[in-house]
Amino acid sequence: MATVSVEESAVAVRLSLGDEILALHGSLHIPFSHIRSVSTDPVPETWYRGMKFGTNLPGVKTAGTFITGDGMIFYDFHDPSRCLTFNLSHERYQQVVVEVDHDQDPKALAAAVRQRLTPA
């Protein structure tokens, strides 16, 4: 899980220490200008997500960088129904998919991010 916060010019995605270890990655800061869209749609179930640098135990934990035919995707989730999916441009990742902490509301966070996005 991640703590997601809407900052002045970016979205901060702070991973727990355990998730940083499983994902082989630290926390992320995504500038609003690089976010094309954000959704709360549940993450589709799939066993194979591409070549991975991290952890992929379907139904248990998916965390890390996955290289797919569509580019690189960063995942950090257990519960696919509590995720935010950021579609990005001008970033290393084409998508960042993270499960938000239990004390956070994914839909409210997505709405707050959408309010900050510059229309294309």
How many strand elements? 9
Percent helix range? 10-25%
Number of helices: 2
Oligomer: single chain
Largest sheet: 6 strands, mixed
User: In angstroms, what separates the terminal alpha carbons?
Assistant: 30 Å
Approximate strand percentage: 35-45%
Tell me the structural class. Answer: alpha+beta
Describe the global form: globular
Q: Which strand order spans the largest sheet, edge to edge or round the barrel? A: 4-8-9-7-6-5
The gyration radius over C-alpha positions equals: 13 Å
Q: Give helix and strand order, one letter per element, not per position.
A: EEHEEEEEEEH
Strand and helix map with partners:
Elements: E1 2-6, E2 10-15, H1 17-23, E3 28-31, E4 35-39, E5 51-57, E6 61-68, E7 71-77, E8 83-88, E9 95-99, H2 106-116
Please characterize this protein's 3D structure.
- This protein is an alpha+beta fold.
- The chain has one domain (2-116).
- It has 2 helices and 9 strands; from the N terminus they run ββαβββββββα.
- The strands form 2 sheets. Strands 4-8-9-7-6-5 form a 6-stranded mixed beta sheet, covered by helices on one side.
- A hairpin with a 2-residue loop joins strand 6 and strand 7 (71-77).
- The longest helix is centred in the C-terminal third of the chain and has 11 residues, at 106-116.
- The model has no long low-confidence stretch (mean pLDDT 93).
